[in-house]
Design goal:
By secondary structure, the chain is mostly helical. Helix 1 packs across helix 2. The longest helix has about 40 residues. The protein is elongated.
Length: about 120
C-alpha cells in the first residue's frame, strides 16, 4: 500500500463518510483543531492538501503529515466510541426508568386479561 493510499484511508476514517466533501471538510476540521501550526504557516493544513490525499493526487506524503493523520484518526475513533457509549448509557437509563415505573404500578391497575 502506498503512502498516498494510506493517507486517503486516514482521511476516509477521520471524515467518517464516503462523500468527498463531507470527509474532506470533517478531516480538515479535526486536523486544524489538533494541529494548528500557528508558529509555522508552511505546515498548516489546507483543504487542497487534504483533497489531494482523498483524490490520491499527492506526489508524496511527508512523515509529519502521516503522523498527524494517524493521531487524528485515533482521536476521531476515540470520540466516536465515547459518543456510542453515551448513547448506550442513555438507552440503558431510559429502559431502567421505564421498568422502575412499571414496577410501581399496582397489579390491580394493570390491564391484564389473564384468567384467574
Amino acid at each position: 500500500m502506498s503512502d498516498v493510499a494510506m493517507a486517503r484511508g486516514y482521511v476516509a476514517e477521520i471524515g467518517n463518510s464516503t462523500q468527498a466533501k463531507v470527509a474532506i471538510a470533517t478531516t480538515l476540521k479535526w486536523l486544524m483543531r489538533l494541529f494548528p501550526h500557528k508558529d509555522n504557516p508552511k505546515n498548516q493544513w489546507t483543504e487542497r492538501r487534504v483533497r489531494s490525499f482523498w483524490n490520491e493526487e499527492a506526489a508524496l506524503v511527508q512523515f509529519r503529515e502521516m503522523v498527524e493523520l494517524h493521531r487524528a484518526a485515533d482521536a476521531a475513533r476515540e470520540e466516536r466510541a465515547k459518543q456510542k457509549a453515551r448513547k448506550q448509557h442513555a438507552a440503558y437509563r431510559a429502559e431502567t426508568a421505564r421498568l422502575a415505573e412499571m414496577a410501581l404500578v399496582p397489579p390491580a391497575a394493570r390491564n391484564s386479561d389473564v384468567a384467574s
